[in-house]
Amino acid sequence: MKWFWYASPETFFPLAGRLAYGCGIAAALLAVAGLYVGFFVAPTDATQGEVYRIIFIHVPAAWMSMLLYLAMAFWAALGLALNTRLSGMMARAIAPSGALFTFIALWTGALWGKPTWGAYWVWDARLTSELILLFLYLGFMALQASIDDRRRSDRAGAVLAIVGAVNVPIIYFSVQWWNTLHQGASVSFAKAPSMAATMFTGMILMVLAFWMYSFAVTFVRVRCLIREQG
Amino acid sequence: MNWYLWGAYGVTFFVLFIEVILLIKRTRETKA
């Protein structure tokens, strides 16, 4: 594959269209499969009852919020270092979806927290650092929107995105570094998942669905940006 | 009826649906 060939917005445009179409279909199919497993195959939790099923959107949304921020910071840094037009466009295209997934993670977390902890919100390290992530996304978008010159706005946004990336490991390790109300990681590379196999399968299917959805909307948005910026 | 569960799923898919609708609208506007 000719990677540098696709570094130009003009040549990337048709490829993004094809990728968006394929990823969109994959996202729909994976979401249907994930919701089926989550609602009809996975058993009711012994202690939390039905409300635990929020896990099938809460965990994937929280993972996506962090991964999309790292992807946004990566493209922004690449644009800053190499001064490539497409990199800045990719960072711009990722930001709204990242903010949306951060909001979903906070919203679903609040609705899970009330019946299990007795509160919608606590100033816990995990929750607070995730809220800061939402402000970073909103700040990135507001900063870029406030500067008319595209190159200057890309550079300013890149600095904010790179500095803000330090918040991602803080979110991830917050449950280990501080004594938080939020539970520790249910899934990690170091140990087997601490949940039933069907619950884990439903969650992974929804993670993949959210991944594919993010790819699809990012590619559609970057096509809009290429058309708008010429 | 578990309102916490449906509140979480309802709002999630509603905001994702809105994002898709806005993107379709933006695509049509940029095409024109």
Describe this structure in words.
The complex is a heterodimer of chains A (230) and B (32). Chain A has a single domain (11-229), classed as Up-down Bundle (Four Helix Bundle (Hemerythrin (Met), subunit A)), CATH 1.20.120. Chain A has seven helices and no strands. Chain A has helices at 9-41, 55-82, 85-117, 125-146, 150-164, 167-177, 197-229. In chain A, α2 runs antiparallel to α3 (85-117) and α3 packs antiparallel against α4. The mean pLDDT of chain A is 90. In chain B, 16% of the residues are buried. Chain B has one domain. The longest helix of chain B is centred in the middle third of the chain and has 29 residues, at 3-31. By secondary structure, chain B is mainly α. Chain B has one helix at residues 3-31. Classes of the chains: A mainly alpha (230), B mainly alpha (32). Chains A and B meet through α2, α3 and α7 of A and α1 of B.
Number of strands of chain B: 0
Low-confidence stretches of chain A: none
Order of helices and strands of chain A: HHHHHHH
Distance between the termini of chain A: 25 Å
Order of helices and strands of chain B: H
Largest sheet features of chain B: none
Give the class of chain A from helix and strand content and strand pairing.
mainly alpha
- Domain count of chain B: the total is 1
Question: What would the average pLDDT of chain B be, to the nearest integer?
Answer: 92
- The structural class of chain B is mainly alpha
Terminal-residue CA separation of chain B: 46 Å
